[in-house]
# Entry
Amino acid sequence: FFVDDMLLSAGERIAMSLLGIAINSRGCRAASYTGSQAGIITDTAHGQARIIEIRPKRIQEALEAGNVVIIAGFQGLSSAYEITTLGRGGSDLTAVAMAGAVGAEICEIYTDVGGVMTADPRVVPEARLIERIGYEEMLELTAAGAKVLQTRSVELARRSGLRLHVRSSFDDGTPGTRVEEDGA
# Structure
């Protein structure tokens, strides 16, 4: 049993619970789930686990019942029945994997920048937003060090044909970036 992954995943469990409470207090029905409750099955590589299967039945039932579904990202349950974490970008990976498992057409990823930029806007103030980009080009950017999306998330989206929409958590006015097969 790897205690560090249990501890590392605590923040996501707390955040999903608080978000569920806030949504319920606003009059919407929310249902929150840990990675294991959501059916995210991983290998046994603690700290950098790979998703090997998703069993979305419980999530699909909650959605069909009209709930706002909240899933703690970055975590799953290993084939040895231990809590595992997915490593850097694991929350994005969780979102992409679950969106694909429930048959979504698009997965929105919210971040601290307006989308995929030509450079890091914190370093290069004149960086411009890329409004559309293909999976291959996005994978090249992640390989070159772009941190807005994690490589495994982009690879999974490409394999499943799931379109991604990278948007700002802080600015509704920016169009964000659409990552899809035809790209720019």
